[in-house]
Amino acid sequence: TALAEYAGSKHCITVSSGTHSLEIALRALGIGPDDEVITAPFTWISSSEVMLLVGAKPVFVDIDPVTFNINVDQLESAITPNTKAILPICLFGQMPDFERINAIAEKHGLAVIEDAAQSFGATRNGKRSCGVTQIASTSFFPAKPLGCYGDGGALFTDDDEIATAMRAIRTHGGTKRHHHTLVGTNGRFDTLQAAVILAKLPHFQNEVERRSSIGARYSDLLRDVCRVPEVAEGNTHVYAQYTIRVPNRDDVSATLKEAGIPNAIYYPKCLHEQPVFSHLGYDYGDFPESEAASKEVLSLPMHPFLSESDQDTIVAAVKNAVG
Fold it and tell me: Which of 52, 229, 240, 246 has the greatest number of beta carbons closer than 10 A?
């Protein structure tokens, strides 16, 4: 109830992980063999592996190089008679152009599932992530903006029938004990994790605002030495990762580590490069913006309690490493 109120959604169904939430969403929509779901290849594997788990086929569309989110201009060309849904990923902490995505989906009779694993707390034109699409999914893995003490996630929808189906699928396919109407799973959210989220939620909006200001300060200090993440018009950004782009990424990463500055690469390989998706028939070169990003992105330390002095130390090390 508290999460639904925060996101501005009628229903929230808590689940055991963000990955599980995506699978449950697909199952609730009846997506299965021979169906296609459009998404982007520059992301973590969970958003596409769940499609294979239900027998569906991921169809990739390249990213916008500025926001790292799906390139909406390429969406319609990827739609076929087998397309059943669009699954946009709010990568690194900001939302894509959901007004256009929802309009395209409505035109073609498609569902939209927001993968908000990294964007909970972000807004677009005043509406919060997880409150703008037919279904939204988020993660409470500890590294996320709102984290619990282990795996956890949630699903959001305004649709009563979809909410009922997702609740049933979460609990072995039934809403009544010993009565199973759907093929389900054990996707329950632990009580302990719920208690952690309830304790952290009153402080979350302050952390969202801190993330926004820390990210903006990073960008002001680093804009002259590397490509910094830009915030799209109408958006706020929660910077689940603060991610820069540098051409000599691996050298910069190594130099920072030698200087004692933690950093990470999200993601060094696109999904169409992964062996598990080789049967889809994509080749290297099919998604040039995603491939370029995978070779240039570098995420710097980011959390709502990062001090200016620590941030200044990180910035100085980045400037030295970039050279």
Answer: 240
Q: Report the C-alpha gap between 162 and 241 in whole angstroms.
A: 31
Q: Residues 28, 167: contact at Cβ < 8 Å?
A: no
d(CA 90, CA 237): 10
Rounded CA separation 113/21 (Å): 11
Tens-place pLDDT, residues 276-287: 999 999 999 999
Q: How confident is the model over 154-201, as pLDDT tens digits?
A: 999 999 999 999 999 999 999 999 999 999 999 999 999 999 999 999
| β-strand pairing of 135-139 with 153-157 | antiparallel
Given the structure tokens 């099919």, which residue do they identify?
A: 286
Task: Collect all residues with Cβ–Cβ distance below 8 Å to 184 and sequence separation of at least 6.
Answer: 27, 168, 169, 170, 171, 172, 173, 174
C-beta separation of 30 from 183 below 8 A: no
3-state SS, residue 210? helix
Report H helices in 223-279.
249-258
| Count of other CB atoms within 10 angstroms of residue 108 | 12
Residue pointed to by tokens 């982007």: 40
Give all strands (DSSP E) within 6-152, no chain letters: 11-15, 36-39, 57-60, 83-86, 111-115, 123-124, 127-128, 135-139
CA 293 to chain centroid: 16
Q: Which amino acid is at 87?
A: L
